[in-house]
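Subject: two folds for Thursday's group meeting

Dear M.,

Sorry for the delay on this. The cluster queue was jammed most of the week, so I only got both jobs back this morning. I'm pasting them in the order they finished. Each block is the input sequence followed by the predicted C-alpha cells. Could you check whether the formatting survives your parser before we put anything on slides? The first protein is the one we discussed after the seminar.
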Amino acid sequence: MDQLIEALWRAGGSDLHISGGMVPKIRIEGQLQDLPGAPRLLPDQIDHLLAQILPTDQLDFCRSGQGDLDFSFGWRRTARIRGNLFRQRNSLAVAMRLMPQEIPTFDQLRLPESVRRFAQASQGLVLVSGPTGSGKSTTLASMIAWIAANQAKHVITIEDPIEYVHRHGRSVVNQRAVGEDAPSFPEALRSALREDPDVLLVGELRDLESIRVALTLAETGHLVFGTVHTNDAVQSIDRLVDVFPGDEQSQIRTQLGLSLTGVVYQRLLPRVGGGVVPAFEVMVVDSSLRNLIREGRTSQMRNQLLVGQAAGMMTLEQSLSELVQAGLVTHQDAVARSRHPADISRRRAY
C-alpha cells in the first residue's frame, strides 16, 4: 500500500481507487487513469493491502456488510490520507484522497478577500459548499490555520474523519474525530457548549440536530464553520431549511437570518497548462439578504450577489469570467461548470 500511495504522490494525483478485478486508478487534474505499471488486483490481494493500514476489527466490520468505514492516517510525515472503505460485488473496495501535510495559505488557494474576512469574524455561521472534491475541506483548513496562527482562540473541530492536523499557534486547537473522540456530530456539538469554544468547525452539516445546535452556537457569540453539498451559495440556505419539518422551517429561517455571516460555493477547474484552479461564489450576508432569508425569498438572492461586488460578493459566473479573461481556464471548461453559462464572458482578443 505504501508503494501505491508513493506512486500517487509522485504522479501529482489527488485520489487512489482500488477495487477487485481492475488496475488501481488515480485521479490527476480531475481525470481518472490507470496507475502506471500497477497490476490488476484480485480481492484477496486487496485484503492484504488493506490489512497494512487498517485493524482487523474495522476490516471485519465492512466485510460483514454492517456498513462503510471512513478513516484517515498520516503518511511519511508528508501527507494525510482520507479514505472510505466499502463493499462491492461481495468484496472490499477503497477510495483514498491524498492531502499535503502543510495546509495551503490564503494566497496559495487564491481565496477572494471577502472569503478571507470570514476568518476574522467574531461570531456567526459560515458555510462552505460545493460538490465532492471541490476543495471545501482545504478552504476551511486554511481558515482555521489562519485563526490559530493569528488569534488567541479556543478552536474545536468535529470531523469524520480528521483530515488536516492543525498546530496550536496562538490558539488552542482541539480536533475531535466522530467515532473515536465523540459518538456523533450532534453529541460532539452539544458537548462543545460546555467546552468554552470561540470557533467551531463542523465537518458536515447534514442532520437536523447538528444544524440546530450549530445555529444555537452561532447565535450565542461563537464563530461556526460548516460544509454542505449544494450547487450554489443560495441553495445552501434552502438545504439547511429543508432538513426541518414544515412547521419548524419559519423559525429556522429566522435563526439563519440572524446568524448567517457568509456562504462560499466553490468548484475546481483544469488550469491551462496543468493543475487546477478554484472558482468561487461568495455571499456576504447583509441586511437585505437577511430579510430575504427570513421571508423565504431565496429565489431573489442571486440578484443581490450580482450587484453586491462592493461588499465582496460574486456569482460563480463572475469568478469564472475572471479566470477565462486571465487565460487560466478555457471558456469551454468554465461553461461546463456553470448553471448560467450565458453569463460567462469569452476571453478578449488583444
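Second protein, same layout:
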Amino acid sequence: MRKGVRTMGSSKVEFIYLSQEDVLSTGINMKDVLNTIEKVLALHDEGKVNLPSKVILDLGEKERGRINAMPAYLGGDFEICGIKWIAGFPPNPVKFGIPRAHALLILNDSWTGVPLAIMDCTYISAMRTGAVTGVGAKYLANPDSETVGIIGCGVQAKTQIMAIKTAIPSVKVLKGYDIRRETSEKFAQWAAKELGLKAQAVGTAKEAVEGSDILVTVTVADEPIVKDAWLKKGSLFTHVGSYQEEEEAVIFNSDKVVVDLWHEVLHRGTPLLAKLYNAGRIKEERIHANIGAIIRGKKTGRTSKEERIFFSPLGLGSEDVAVASLVYKEAKKKGVGTTLKLWDNPAII
C-alpha cells in the first residue's frame, strides 16, 4: 500500500500548523525555492499538474481588496495537493500596519485528501513570486547581466532582486524606483546591505529602465509606466504586476514574448498581453512559449545577446503548493510546528 494512505485501523487524523515564524525556522532559502519552481514549471509542460484556474473574491480590487483561492495538484516527485487562500488589500500597510498581501495554505495528502499541514503562506508566496522571475532570468536574460532596474519597491521587490542575484551572480547594480521616494530609498539601503549591490533609489521610472540589462515591474499600476524607447537592446523585461505596466509598443517590439502559462494569463484577463489578445490585436502565435517548454529544451530561450525578451508570469498555485511541500518536509525533519488533531475517530463514515 502506498505510504500515506490510512487504513480503517488508523482513523486518527492529525496535521501540523506552521506559523510564519515556523516557516522561517525551516531555513529554506532562495536557491531552494528557485530549484523547486524550475521543477514545477517543467512539470506543467509534462502535463503532470492539475491546476484549476484561480477563483477571485473581488471586494473592490483597487479600493479595498481581493482574495484568491488557488488550488493545485502536482504529480512527479511531488505527489501532493493543496490550496492557497491569499488576500491582497492595498490599503493595509498605511491604514492597518499589516502587509498588503497575506496568505494561508492547506497541504493535503494526494491519496486520502486529509490535511498534512496548515501554514502561513505569506513568506512562501513572496519567495515563489521572486523565484519565478529568477527562473525567467536564468533562461531569458543575458548571463553576464550586471544592471537591474526595479519599478515598485515594496515587499515583492526584495524577493525579486534576491532571486535575480541568485540566478545571475554577475549582477552588481540595482536601480529602484517607487512613487514613494522613502520606499525606494529603504529598498536600496536594504539591497546594498543584504546583497552587496551598488544600489540606488532613482527619481523616475525612465532612470530605472534606461541601461538596465534586466527590468522588473512589480506594481499595482494600470497604466503604461514603461516606454518602449527606454528599453535597452538585449534586455529582459519581466512584468510581474497584474495589470498594464508598459505601453503596447513594448510587446509589439519584443523579439520574444514568454509566459508561465498562457491559458492562465488569458483567464486573468487584466495583463496587457491578455487585453491585446482579446481585442484581436495579437495572435496566440505571438507567444513564443510557456517557460516550462524552454526549461525542458522544447523551445529556445535566449539565442543572441541582442534579443529583447518580454516575460509575463502570472503566478500559479502549483508553485505555492510545491514550496509549501518543501517547507513541510523540512518542518517534519526538524520537529517544527504544532500538531493539531482533526479527529480521533470520524463521526460519520
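Two things I noticed about the second structure. Residues 140 and 301 are 6 Å apart (CA to CA). Residues 1-8 have pLDDT under 50 and may be disordered.

Cheers,
T.
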